Structure formats: C-alpha cells, structure tokens
Amino acid sequence: MADAELHLEDGGLWVQPLAVPAETAGRPALFLDRDGTINVDTGYPRDPAEIALLSPIVPVIRAANTAHIPVVIVSNQSGIARGLLDWNDFAAVNARLLDLLAEQGCFIAMVLACAYHERGKRPLNVADHPMRKPNPGMLFRAAELLDLDLGGSVVVGDKPSDMKAGRRAGLGEGWLIGGTCSGMPGFACRALLSDPDWAALIERVSRLSVRS
Q1: pTM here?
Q2: What kind and span of H or E run contains 32?
Q3: Whole-number average pLDDT of the chain
Q4: Residue 52: what are its φ and ψ, rounded to 5°?
Q5: Is 135 left (phi over 0), alpha (psi -120 to 50) or beta?
Q6: Taking Cα atoms as reference points, which of 77, 144, 86 lies closest to residue 116?
Q7: Of all residues in the chain, what percent carry a pLDDT higher than 70?
Q8: What's the CATH number of domain 2-19+26-142+158-206, 3.40.50.10540, 3.20.20.70, 1.20.1260.10, 3.40.50.1000?
Q9: E strand or H helix at 113
Q10: Cα separation of 155 and 117, whole Å?
Q11: Which of 10, 35, 149, 197 is catalytic?
C-alpha cells in the first residue's frame, strides 16, 4: 500500500498529477473516463496483464497532446469500496495503462479516481459523494490543481454519468461512446457510434485552444 498512499486523499480519492500548472494554466482539458473509454472494460480490472487499449481513443489523445491540451483521466472505482480490489491493484493497473499509452506516444496530465460508493464497505460507503461521477468533484479538483479552463473543456466517456459530471462542472460539451443523451440543457452531448464520429472528435480536440 505504501506506493499507492502517495496519491491518496482521505483514503477514497486518488490524485496523481503528471504535469505541472506552468504547463497547463488557463488551458481547456480533455477529460476522459477510463474503463470502457481508454481501455477495454473487463469489470473491475485488477490484473495489469489484462489491460488493453481501445484503439479509437489513441489518436484522440495524440491530437490533444499535439494541441497542448492537458488530458485528465477521471474514473469511478466502486470496486475498491466493494472490496473487489484495493488501491495497490488500482496502482498496478494504472501504471500499466500509462505505460501502454506512452508506447503509443500519448501523455496524460493527471489521473483521478474515486472509490466512494453507497454500497461499499466502511469508510468508503458514502452515498452521493461529491467526487463520484455524476458529481463534478474530480473535474473541479483537476481544475484547481492544474489551473484549467473548465468552460472550454470537453469530456469523453461511455456512460451518461460522465456527461452529467461534465455538465455540472461547467463544461459545454461531451462525447458519449455508444449512445446519445438528452435532457441536459446548455450541454452539447454528441454520440460516438462510428468512425466518422471519432474523426469529428479528433478534429474538435485539435481545435481546442486557450480562450482570450
């Protein structure tokens, strides 16, 4: 647990900065869910050897890196609260994921993960924790630490909770893998269903810029 504790806040929130504010200040971010968005969702992954990247996300991250847009991972990890894995398991999987991305020329600016869940074990059995998506706490925490422009940022995920977290954080736009969303006034939710949709996302990310 010693290595994992380096990045833990209050026992239920993982905060791992990989960039410094001098590199990210005032910039919009690309917020990404993890399981089912960056890597194949195997259901509470705990074995680093089983981690495999989802190929469509790689050029999206590369586009953000090229445009100097910080990429931030925000992941719910209720499996930790439920006792299905622990933070050391998460740390090993996270390290493998970052290595696989680095092999593809992709850099992540920050990783955040929330283990709180209402049906978890004490002390992680917290209902509606502000850090757990669809609440926006992880996005706010990233913005605080990296001095990000949330209003100009974009979120990508495979669940409506990812979109809701983005909207609640003040983002204007989200891209939902495998579906569409509605009922979010003032928030542009776009579907990622086919290759042209992913190409549109790559183009959108490449055009994100610092607002004057």
Answers
A1: 0.96
A2: strand 30-32
A3: 94
A4: -135, 135
A5: beta
A6: 77
A7: 98
A8: 3.40.50.1000
A9: strand 110-114
A10: 22
A11: 35
The reply to whether 35 belongs to the active site is yes
Residue 3: per-residue pLDDT: 66
> Is-catalytic flag, 33?
yes
The pLDDT of residue 2: 46
- Give the integer Cα–Cα distance in Å for 75 and 113: 5
Q: Please tell me the distance from the alpha carbon of residue 171 to that of residue 125, in angstroms, as a whole number.
A: 28
> What is the structure's pLDDT at 153?
98
> In which element (H, E) is residue 64 found?
helix 57-66
Q: What is the pLDDT of residues 69-87, one digit of tens each?
A: 999 999 999 999 999 999 9
Q: Say which of 33, 89, 149, 158 is annotated catalytic.
A: 33
pLDDT in tens, 89-136: 999 999 999 999 999 999 999 999 999 999 989 999 999 999 999 999
DSSP symbol at 6: T
Q: Cα 191 vs. chain centroid, distance in angstroms? A: 17
Alpha-carbon distance 171 to 168, whole Å? 7
Q: Is 91 helix (H, G, I), strand (E, B) or coil?
A: helix
Non-local (6+) Cβ contacts of 164 within 8 A are: 133, 134, 184
Q: d(Cα 66, Cα 169) in Å, to the nearest integer? A: 25
Taking residues 166-182, what's their average pLDDT?
92
Other beta carbons within 10 angstroms of residue 90's beta carbon come to 24
Cα-based torsion angle of the residue sequence 201, 204, 206, 210 in order, rounded to the nearest 10 degrees: -140
